[in-house]
Amino acid sequence: MEIIQDPKQLQSTMLRLKQAGKTIGFVPTMGNLHQGHLSLIDIAKTKADIVVASIFVNPMQFGPNEDFGNYPRTMDDDLSKLEAKGTDFVFTPTIDQVYPLGKDIHTSVEANRLTEKLCGASRPGHFRGVTTVVNILFNIVQPNVAIFGKKDYQQLQVIKTMVNDLMMPIEIIGGDIVREDNGLAMSSRNGYLTKRELEEASYLRKIILNTAEKLHQRSPIEPLKENAVKLLSDAGFKVDYFEIVRQSDLESASSSDNHLLIAAAAWLGQPRLIDNLEVNLTDEQSE
């Protein structure tokens, strides 16, 4: 496994590999890796000849009152995990290498839809930071395929939109959510939870599953959302949102829609937890 910090060096290396006929699979991360991230490496290995991961905590996607300064940085452990998975290259740039003139005046890339709702509503500017850094990383790595986790479902859809709108020759693949034994979606921020909160956090998943069951019974959507918010609030969560939207465009779902997404975000103690579930009513199966 080769670790490269310089963007130009990685870019030239990738271009040489592509000229030699190799395909590139890319998994961008912010580090503090868990099994969810590593499952994306597994997918990349099935889709490309060469697998590249990046570790970069991107300041542009953090708000002024968020946890950029305290975000867990575990580089040595991350590199060991990536090497054990058979990753070929790891890109570990500094902030100055990604934003030489500073993030505030750096050219930004913004998707003009899908970004104002759900996580975008409570985290203004977040997705502009995501699409900007992903665009930079894509230009450096030159991937044929890139893999993102479905836990950040809105992010996945925003990136697919950017790639489609800007006609990038990159296939975007979503990897399934990997969960703790109690059903909680794995997250780098789960480490903020106390042992008790870690168990309590599984209730978010239980409410989502219960809501999905009710959707299969064709229960009205608005009362389901209201009931979920009440149950979570009563259990000690501070709910950011609990929404039932269309998978295709993340707009609010109606009774005539069949391909739905239950999306939720809520604080429990320090961390803000997110989770989701695709619900497909036409074949009466949910993923």
Automatic annotation (TrEMBL):
EC number(s) reported in the record: 6.3.2.1
Coiled-coil spans in chain: none
UniProt-annotated binding residues for (R)-pantoate: 61, 155
Locations listed in the record: Cytoplasm
Cytoplasm found in the keyword field: yes
Catalytic residues in the record: 37 (proton donor)
Molecular function in Gene Ontology: ATP binding; pantoate-beta-alanine ligase activity
Top EC category: ligase
Binding site for ATP: 30-37, 149-152, 178, 186-189
Pfam families: Pantoate_ligase
Pathway annotation from the record: Cofactor biosynthesis; (R)-pantothenate biosynthesis; (R)-pantothenate from (R)-pantoate and beta-alanine: step 1/1
Keyword ATP-binding found: yes
GO cellular component: cytosol
Catalysed reaction equations from the record: (R)-pantoate + beta-alanine + ATP = (R)-pantothenate + AMP + diphosphate + H(+)
Keyword line: ATP-binding, Cytoplasm, Ligase, Nucleotide-binding, Pantothenate biosynthesis
Binding site for beta-alanine: 61
SUPFAM superfamilies for this protein: Nucleotidylyl transferase (SSF52374)
Record GO biological process: pantothenate biosynthetic process
Cited function: Catalyzes the condensation of pantoate with beta-alanine in an ATP-dependent reaction via a pantoyl-adenylate intermediate.
Quaternary structure (record): Homodimer.
Other remarks in the entry: The reaction proceeds by a bi uni uni bi ping pong mechanism.
Entry's family note: Belongs to the pantothenate synthetase family.
Protein name, entry field: Pantothenate synthetase
Organism annotation: Aliikangiella marina
